[in-house]
Design a protein that fits this description.
Elements lengths: L1 E5 L5 H9 L8 E5 L6 E3 L3 E4 L7 H14 L4 E2 L8 H10 L7 E3 L11 E5 L14 H11 L8 E5 L4 E2 L2 E13 L2 E10 L12 H13 L3 H11 L3 E8 L5 E7 L13 H22 L7 E2 L4 H8 L9
Parallel strand pairs: 1-2, 1-4, 4-5
Antiparallel strand pairs: 3-14, 6-8, 7-8, 9-10, 10-11, 10-12, 12-13
Helix pairs in contact: 5-7
Amino acid sequence: MFAYFATGKFTFPLEWFLRDWAPQLAAQVQVVPYESLFDFRSLRGTAILSDWDRLHADERTTYSRWFAERGQGRLLNPPGGVPERETLNARLRKAAYCNFRVMPAQALPADLRFPVFLRARNDHRGSLTPLLHDHAALADALEVVTQWTRATDLLVCEWLRCTAPFDTGLYCKFSAMRIDRHLIPRHVLFARHWQVKHPDRINPELAAYEREWMETFPERDAVNRVFDLAGVDYGRIDYGFDAEGQMQVFEINTNPMVMPKRDTVAPLRLDAQLASATRMIEAFQELAGESNERPARQGFPRWVRARLRGPVRPRNRA
């Protein structure tokens, strides 16, 4: 048994994986929204703490204190271990794992390199804008986006072209999962748009490339080093390669979509995805075998638990 903590609106990435790909694991995993944390008295078993980047600073402080005082088991992604997006970007640039900058929209350097795009600090929707090619376009975009997103939550990201090794007309994203000591290649996605969220180009050649990459995983050592630099025990790394063939790490998501819905996977990609799912199931089973402990519930009435929990901040679904 292990517990999986995530923000309330974003428990579905693991829940969908359990439903579609690993129903045999469902009884061994307890998915807990952070907002329900004060419903529990203690935590003695193994737990994955995801979604730290979606939490606001006061929430991170509150939940970190709970785990420090009551988390008596082994924690993956423990409080204070996972850096914020700008901090991670700075570490990776220093270690030569990316050549672009991510910075607060309110603190832009004079040598900002265009094109850029805007994204929110605490979600994974990706870009909120098209590519912006000069200061005037950036100013216009900020004026629009700050109508629904606080300026303090906005980041400006320098864009770097990362295309498929064999076709510069296709954009390409590589991804791998770390589940404790296991590192599992997840997918290679190809698309015509520069922001690759879903594969919109699938053919036998691309499927064969993805399958071979997943079998050989040539970046294994570099990916392991990046996870270590980030202090992430559980999460998915997304990266590409620039025109010189240098690895460019886009982000590490600590609450990623573990797998897409099973009925959305193209038949050409299904065998490779089944192999990846099998390896992740084995990694989760290893975690589940560490302990039989469930988080212990409080005996407080509901109104007391609500007072302990404090106000819940509204979130956009991302």
